Amino acid sequence: QVQLVESGGGMVQAGGSLRLSCAASGRTFSSSDMGWFRQAPGKEREFVAGIRWNGSYTTYADSVKGRFTISRDNAKKMVYLQMNSLKPEDTAVYYCAAGNSHWNFQLSKVDEYRYWGQGTQVTVSS
After folding, report:
1. Which member of 18, 28, 52, 58 has the greatest number of CB atoms within 10 A?
2. How far is the C-alpha of 36 from the C-alpha of 45, rounded, in Å?
């Protein structure tokens, strides 16, 4: 089992940067594929970025590609999302998620993830 706690959200002007952190606890973190998702008011939860259990592969939603970077530190049980060149449309609650890695794990699929954090609000003003 994995417990997840996000931090680092806040309010920033367009063009600014934020770094989200996700602190994990539990013995299976190092074998978990990890993802960041977001949900804006009135919208469905959407994929933002994902990373394999060993950091060997990352993938991003087209809307954030080139601006956001996902990374992890298995020794510290941490996952990060560096967000640069933020836009007002990036405003949402951001969630960290973990899933038990397997050969066909689809990093962009919500249903793949078993464990979720409580979310952290990111607000980008124009």
Report:
1. 18
2. 10
**Residue closest to 61 by CA, chosen among 44, 48, 46:** 48
The fraction of the chain above a pLDDT of 70, given in percent, is: 100
- Which of 95, 78, 71 has its CA nearest to residue 29? 78
The whole-number pLDDT of residue 1 equals 80
Provide mean pLDDT across the span 75-83.
Answer: 97
| Polymer length of the chain | 126
Q: Which residues are within 8 A (CB) of 73 and not within 5 positions of it... i.e. 6 or more apart?
A: 79, 80
Long-range contacts from 72-76, C-beta under 8 angstroms, 24+ separation: 72/34, 74/29, 74/30
Residue partners of 53: CB distance under 8 A and separation at least 6 = 30, 31, 32, 33, 34, 74, 101
Query: Looking at residue 27, what is its pLDDT?
Result: 82
Enter the DSSP assignment of 26: S
